[in-house]
Design brief:
5-stranded parallel β-sheet, 10 strands, single chain, alpha/beta
């Protein structure tokens, strides 16, 4: 990668950096930040790291840092325990999201030992930081911008801390690989025909056997006449061939049919709509196990989770309605429960979309 220019075609004329790295030194300076910077540099990715001393309380970001954000193809934000205490970091975040809105900059959040819901709702250390900010900054508009930016950034697909990985090194390698791929795609965007072939998959590894572009997994009445119908219609308008299992609600404990299992195997993408009632359906949970089995076989299938009015952490930890569903399942399906739990945990850390109630 050229050290003085970004690989993004939309930034070619003005970019100086591939990646801008936003972080709080107190939490990350000798740990994940240095590991991630090293992993990116090993892939010859040119990045900007602001290594100046911690700014004074209330200082706004310098014009040089603002310019570095503006002229980077990708911004990585490492959300850590003390991130929100830094007004410098919060101003960087506002600037990053402004660039995303104005010129399509790619933004990748990394939730390092913090839960995305804590960032989204300003809870835990993020809430404590704002108790301080509310009492120390008379500019309430600035403080609200920080809150809005945290909420917005937490809903962007990214990476959730290193717990699913063996260590930080494995975690940052995964991030570096993803960033490298994003930059390569910017430099040489793949060609897609104006319409996707209705009877064939887009992945060359699936060409011989794919029947559908998308398999849609969803749970019952809380999505049937809402997001599921809207999403299916949107995919249809783009001539994307989708499989939607519209059979009536199945009997308790029924397993997915061989036909549905085969459809999952022969779809390029599986979209999973996690909704309030999703985990109550053993059919949905069996679909999820099958989808992740196909993913783990590494045959090129893509999985996209959509968290519809549920918090990803509730899916990950089986809390809320997901926990209530498993109280029932533990009694009735003891032989299958562990597989379902593991599948929900794995799916919840895949980059996807979060759709929450509007505030």
């Amino acid at each position: 990668m050229a050290s003085s220019s970004s690989l993004s075609s939309s930034f070619t004329a003005k970019s100086k950096y591939d990646v801008f790295l936003s972080f709080r030194s107190k939490d990350t300076g000798i740990g994940i930040r240095d590991h991630l910077a090293a992993a990116l540099r090993r892939k010859q990715i040119e990045l900007f790291i602001d290594d100046e001393q911690e700014p004074q309380k209330g200082d706004e970001i310098s014009p040089a840092v603002s310019k570095a954000i503006e002229t980077s193809a990708v911004s990585i934000i490492i959300f850590s325990k003390n991130y929100a205490y830094s007004t410098w970091c919060l101003d960087e975040l506002v600037r990053i999201l402004d660039c995303k809105k104005r010129n399509g900059q790619t933004v990748v959040p990394v939730f390092y030992k913090v839960d995305p819901s804590a960032v989204r709702k300003q809870r835990g250390s993020f809430g404590e930081a704002f108790v301080h900010h509310e009492s120390n900054f008379s500019d309430k508009v600035r403080v609200q911008k920080w809150r809005d930016s945290l909420t917005q950034a937490s809903n962007i697909s990214g990476f959730y801390d290193s717990r699913p990985f063996r260590n930080d090194a494995q975690f940052v390698e995964k991030i570096a690989e993803d960033i490298s791929k994003k930059l390569e795609d910017m430099a040489d965007p793949p060609y897609f025909p104006s319409s996707m072939a209705s009877s064939s998959c887009l992945s060359s590894s699936f060409t011989a056997k794919c029947k559908y572009d998308v398999f849609l997994s969803f749970g019952g009445e809380d999505t049937r006449s809402g997001i599921r119908s809207h999403l299916a219609a949107a995919l249809h308008r783009k001539q994307i061939e989708s499989f939607i299992d519209d059979e009536e609600e199945l009997q308790k404990g029924d397993e997915i049919s061989p036909a549905v299992s085969n459809v999952i195997e022969t779809s390029f993408i599986s979209i999973i709509i996690f909704s309030k009632d999703y985990a109550y359906s053993t059919w949905c949970l069996d679909e999820l196990v099958k989808i992740l089995d196909c993913l783990e076989k590494n045959n090129g299938q893509i999985v996209v989770p959509v968290f519809y009015r549920v918090d990803p952490s509730d899916v990950r930890k089986q809390k809320g309605s997901f926990g209530e569903a498993f109280v029932h399942h533990e009694r009735n399906f003891p032989d299958k429960v562990q597989k379902w739990r593991e599948a929900l945990t794995k799916a919840s850390i895949i980059s996807g979309f979060v759709v929450m109630e509007s505030r």
